[in-house]
Amino acid sequence: MTSSEQAGAEQAAPAVGPVRLADALGWGSSALGAPMTLAPRRFLRAIGVADDSKAVAWTLGVGLREHLATLNVIAMRQRRIGIWSRVAGDTMDMTLLAAAYRHKREDRTRLLGAMGVVGGLLVLDTLTAVQLTRADGATVEDGSGSQGVGADHDAGGGPLRVRTAVTIRRPEQEVRDALRDFAWSAFDPAALEASGELRILRAPGDRGTEVHLDHEPAPRGGVVGAAAAKLVGKAPDQVIHDELRRFKSLVETGVIARSDTSPEGPSSTRQIMHKRQPAQPVTEES
Amino acid sequence: MRATCWSGRNTVQVEEVPDPRLLTDRDAIVRITSTAICGSDLHLYDGYVPSMTKGDILGHEFMGEVVEVGKSVGGLGVGDRVVVPFPIACGSCGMCARGLFAGCENSNPHAGMAEKMWGHAPAGIFGYSSMTGGYAGGQAEFARVPFADVGPIKIENEDLTDDQVLFLSDIFPTGYMGAELCDIQPGDVVAVWGAGPVGLFAIASAIMLGAERVIAIDRFDYRLDKAREAGATDVIDYTQVEVPVVLKELTGGRGPDACIECVGMEGHHAHPIVHGYDRVKQATRLETERPHAVREAILSCRNGGTVSIMGVYGGFMDKFPIGSLMNRGITIKTGQCHVHRYLRPLLARIESGEIDPSFVVSHHLPLEDAPEGYELFKHKQDNCTKVVLRP
Ligand SMILES: NC(=O)c1ccc[n+]([C@@H]2O[C@H](COP(=O)([O-])OP(=O)(O)OC[C@H]3O[C@@H](n4cnc5c(N)ncnc54)[C@H](O)[C@@H]3O)[C@@H](O)[C@H]2O)c1
Ligand SMILES: [Zn+2]
Ligand SMILES: [Zn+2]
User: Fold this and answer.
1) Which residue of A255, A275, A276, A282 is the best one to mutate when testing the B interface, meaning the one whose CB has the most B CBs within 10 A?
2) What is the extent of the structural domain holding B227?
3) pLDDT digits (tens, 9 = 90+) for A77-94
4) Residues B214 and B273 placed together within one structural domain of the fold
5) Does A259 touch chain B (CB under 8 A)?
6) pTM of the full predicted structure?
7) Which CATH number fits the domain that encloses residue B327?
8) Is B242 in a helix, a strand, or coil?
9) DSSP state of A189
């Protein structure tokens, strides 16, 4: 594996555009949410809808949702998820406005104007969300000539696609041997390396060896099966993350770190179910 | 065995739980002789730390006797008297290799959970919620200690009492690191927010590291008295005066060269409206912190000075004075303490008599009285500074 194969020059530019737009939309949410939550009646009159108590309640609800969208996109930096939920929100708003047009219309021009604005936002949000989803990736070069991070050229992939990397503080050969010997349940490292989905790179300085994975496991039981498995931490992508952590711990320390609530070591299942089991010593059976 | 279990907001119970057993070859089991309640435990007790589960065993400051060792644990044997650092560290990952033990990459099996909230995951910690690993804590009769060949320090000097060495597990190194991060130079004036146990050790350490003056800030007279005992040259009751104004006065208008924040997410503000503002935001989860001391420390620090944050914070704060920080070139340093680094040098200071950490202890209680201990410490009753439980 040579780093020149991945020359940075051919890469698409980093996804700054959609990110900026996402942030603008995120802040915009609050700007729109403010009049809805602070003066719902005035807001309703401004968009030409009768301000009865039911309409006010809906406006307050939508306003609150707008604030949450800002929190999601800006504070939590969940841009992709945040903008996709805005798409859902815009669709809901269109439905609400259409209902208002039929039953609570007071000023046709204003209401049509509002619908135009929401329609425009729907288009903008959808475009941004699609771009963010495409750009949600990065490639890294071998540490011997690390080239930094940029948008991936082969974007896309489904919900199970695993793009991750882990650094192991050991020389490459030792990591290769260990990769071969570890009991992987979710993938075969040799096969993935052959297909280019698994890459082994030297980390910069004395940091050891990086294992990069870009792999989309086949969901057992289709998309529905995978969604169900996800709820209990058993989806293939979750299993891969767990096994990579166990692998790192085993190679670096000789053991897999086990806690009282995760006696088998890193486990997505235990993290999801942690409320079921307090941090108390495990008995032989559990 | 008996163990102190979290059972919801403001309640802990001493319950019968299973005895720990070795889970890996690098584990040891310790029979606990002394264990303390920490300000960090209060954040759990008060329900401000997410991912706690009813029944979690609390406690991360403990010491005792090794009663069982896994077969790959070198350098530690049955019968050894040990103090156990609160972060769990593997000793061989990239972070451990740099001495950043509280950032160990292998000891937190719930790293995925922490990454969602914090971007990257810190080390596992005993008795400190699921997000830091879901480990049973040490306010109990026994504890399982992972990577036992890396963390625990043997105490061979039998003249040293438990009270003298117990705090190597956390608050002495924490206070020391708080001062060390300030890179104290001769002539420096250091201000310390919070005269709880962590603040007291920060004060003592700042003096040991050569500060010319150390100013302690709190609202409890008995704690400010302790601060004097620890070496503070000046004390401020923040409910009586405007702290930044007094600090200016005490430093000839410059501001302290370094500020050490030892208060944490449940800070209190003398002004009821300001206090109420952050309290409501915290109660409604619009912010997770009440960061009065952090704000005040930044605003008070001299141009180009250092603010070292040792108080624990969990999520997001409001009204962070980034303008003051940036325009005046303040450096912020912080972290869970990399306890392992400090064990040997600080034990040496205890052995040489330079410091006797037992001065912070105000109460000894049997383990069964842990619930009372939590109440005493939380409400600063009966001049409580530090509670040591004896199983
Ligand atoms: N970074 C670490 O590794 C580490 C380790 C241990 C403890 N801690 C944290 O250190 C903090 C202090 O721990 P402690 O055991 O001393 O707790 P503590 O509760 O005994 O002490 C906190 C003190 O701060 C004072 N205080 C509150 N508001 C203040 C304000 N606005 N200005 C000045 N003082 C104020 C309180 O009166 C109290 O005396 C906690 O947040 C704890 O979680 C951090
Ligand atoms: Zn502590
Ligand atoms: Zn480590």
Assistant:
1) A255
2) 172-334
3) 677 778 888 888 888 998
4) yes
5) yes
6) 0.81
7) 3.40.50.720
8) coil
9) H
